[in-house]
Amino acid sequence: MTRYALTLEFDGAPYMGLQRQAHGPSVQQSVEEAVFALTGETTGMHAAGRTDAGVHALGMKVHIDIQKPFTPFTLSEGMNARLRPHPIAVVGCEVVPDDWHARFSCIGRSYIYRIANRRAPLTLERGKAWQVPKPLDAAAMHRAAQILVGLHDFTTFRSAHCQSQSPLKTLDRLDVRREGEMVLIEAEARSFLHHQVRSMVGCLALVGLGRWDERKLAEALEARDRQALGLNSPPDGLYFVKAIYPED
Amino acid sequence: MTRYALTLEFDGAPYMGLQRQAHGPSVQQSVEEAVFALTGETTGMHAAGRTDAGVHALGMKVHIDIQKPFTPFTLSEGMNARLRPHPIAVVGCEVVPDDWHARFSCIGRSYIYRIANRRAPLTLERGKAWQVPKPLDAAAMHRAAQILVGLHDFTTFRSAHCQSQSPLKTLDRLDVRREGEMVLIEAEARSFLHHQVRSMVGCLALVGLGRWDERKLAEALEARDRQALGLNSPPDGLYFVKAIYPED
Fold it and tell me: Which of residues 178-217 of B touch A (CB under 8 A)?
């Protein structure tokens, strides 16, 4: 048995989420079926994060165990051939120790959220960004975002379905910048609560629109109450960028 | 009657091309139907360029004549509402003089071509770039591209279906640069022949792969013969960026 760490890029639009679901297609199902088609082996895929329906990934890290011998190159080529026509690609592959775990060994995760700040409906970016028609003040959003950085009880920014034992998380970075009509929000932490990035982005958008000020955002955080959440942003704009491990 | 210049953004994937076609959907048909839905008027759309099936636009300029009164804002909002769910959006709208013509008044056109230079299949970029698996030397492509800049007989780089009276065109700019895994090619001219950008990109890719050198490219140009073309690139990576007018 050899353990391989795969870096996956995928378009989340056709999936109910990364994790295998009883009621619809998932990234995990497609990957496990590709492994079976390639090797005849039944394996379980483990991922650094659990992304929701419609959420994309540029560099999701997962691991799989395989008996049949492969080099990282032949495995990624074989997987990519079997993954077609799914919009999932293996963009990196390496052999890792048997005790390395994509989820439990991971010490950092980063996301990017893309807002298309324009009146016109999206065409080429459809499903790949959140369209906000009214002008956003990205500088005000960045200033307000700094309120959320650090160790906090993020109950307000946590889905009712969140399975994390504690709502206490340390947010390492939350940067907002404008690039033309796009407003980009980058978030980094050891780990995130369910819906945390989308919930933070939703409230930052309210700040960017001038409907919330920094005091209102601070109050929402301090409330530790999901009812205090102003807005949850849609999944379309969210991308899992990178998982970080001690050896990186 | 008022003449409006619209700036269109569209995803070319679902269309047989920009121009109305008997055998399938076109951007022109969708736009003319949106005008009819909005105004009850039958109008003909005229465009700065005629893009092929699968070719995208970031800023295609077109004009339409409408009797019913609109401000540019109400026209673009009304058009965008009626264009749904088509991946076509009005991203700019202005009133122009009655003798202004999107095609005949245009004095410059620019395109960008996007090559995803990577082994892994495309996921988020599927249909939006040309995937070239082997490494491309973008610097060598840029140097070779300068052979094509200037006034030339571009017969080699012209489709058999090209309706232009002359194969003589002045290419003002052809720049190649790498941004991460993407190789971007920007082309500017007063006008282009049918398939000219895709044909030039195809041959530059051969240079980038080391299969052609600059001498081979110069010979292909001098041959003035479609048979001398090395490779025509697919439409997926091509974007009409901008049309330029004397008043700009």
Answer: none
Model confidence at B204, in pLDDT bands (50, 70, 90)?
very high
Mean pLDDT of chain B: 96
- Which residue, among B7, B88, B124, would best test binding to A if mutated, counting the most A CBs under 10 Å from its CB? B124
Residue B240: strand pairing partners: B57, B111
> What is the average pLDDT across B68-72?
96
- B2-96 CATH: 3.30.70.580
Whether B118 and A9 lie within 8 Å, measured CB to CB: no
Distance CA A174, CA A180 (A): 19
CA distance B230 to B212: 9
Buried/exposed code over B102-134 (b: 16+ C-beta within 10 A; e: otherwise): beebbebbbbbbbbbbbbbbbbbbbbbbbbbee
Contact, A90 vs A67, CB < 8 A?
no
Rounded Cα distance between B7 and B76, Å, is: 10
- Give the number of other CB atoms < 10 A from CB of residue A194: 17
Predicted confidence band of residue B119 (pLDDT cuts 50, 70, 90)? very high
B72-78: average pLDDT? 97
Domain covering B108-244: architecture: 2-Layer Sandwich (3.30)
- Chain A within 8 Å of B134 (Cβ-Cβ)? no
* B111 in a known ligand binding site: yes
Q: Are A95 and A3 in contact (CB under 8 A)?
A: yes
The arithmetic mean of pLDDT across residues B75-92, rounded, is: 97
Q: Is the dihedral of CA A39, A41, A42, A47 positive or negative?
A: negative
What pLDDT band is residue A131 in, cutting at 50, 70 and 90? very high
User: SS3 letters for A13-46?
Assistant: CCCCECCCECCECCHHHHHHHHHHHHHCCCCCCE
Q: Do A87 and B126 touch (CB under 8 A)?
A: yes
β-strand pairing of A56-66 with A238-244: parallel
Q: Which two tokens stand for residue B121?
A: 């299949």
- Which segments of chain A belong to CATH 3.30.70.580? 2-96
